[in-house]
Write a structure and sequence with these properties.
This protein is an all-alpha fold. It has two helices and no strands. It comes from Hypnea pannosa.
């Protein structure tokens, strides 16, 4: 046998079949134990706090959405209520305006009738006064005509008696 390191390495590799894909020796349970410990450590240090923050955030978002939905419903109800009140107020205002216009029209027609009655009264009084003045003028004229006719008659009679 030749003592050469190369030959020794060849013999060792051909007789030993170690270092394959999986070695089932004491390192496998140790690696499994390390993996389990690492998952527990990561779970307590990283995953639980992160999942707790995410859960709190989800709960905050749900609460915010619920509050926003409730506020939106309340706002919609208030909007409907105020729109109904506004419509009612508009109707009432229109009724008040219509009533006021009717009352104003009645007042105007009453004032017009009063003015017409006053005008008719003034016209009848003026007509009555004119009639009285006419009668007085006629009486005065009759008296003057009688006096003049008496004078004319007297003069005519006087003139005829002279002739």
């Amino acid at each position: 046998m030749i003592d050469s390191p190369l030959l020794f390495a060849l013999q060792a590799s051909s007789t030993e079949v170690e270092g394959g894909l999986f070695d089932f020796n004491a390192t496998l349970p140790l690696m499994a134990l390390q993996f389990i410990i690492l998952t527990f450590v990561l779970n307590f240090i990283f995953y639980k706090p992160v999942s707790q923050v995410l859960d709190e955030r989800d709960e905050y978002i749900r609460n915010s959405l619920t509050t926003a939905s409730a506020s939106l419903l309340k706002a919609n109800e208030l909007t409907k209520k105020y729109e109904q009140e506004l419509a009612q107020s508009r109707k009432e205002a229109q009724n008040v305006i219509k009533t006021s216009q009717q009352e104003a029209q009645k007042i105007v027609s009453v004032k017009i009738k009063e003015a017409q009655l006053d005008a008719e009264k003034l016209i009848s009084e003026a007509s009555y006064q004119l009639n009285i003045q006419k009668e007085q003028a006629l009486k005065t004229l009759e008296a003057q005509v009688d006096a003049l006719s008496d004078k004319i008659q007297y003069k005519l009679l006087e003139n005829q008696s002279i002739i």
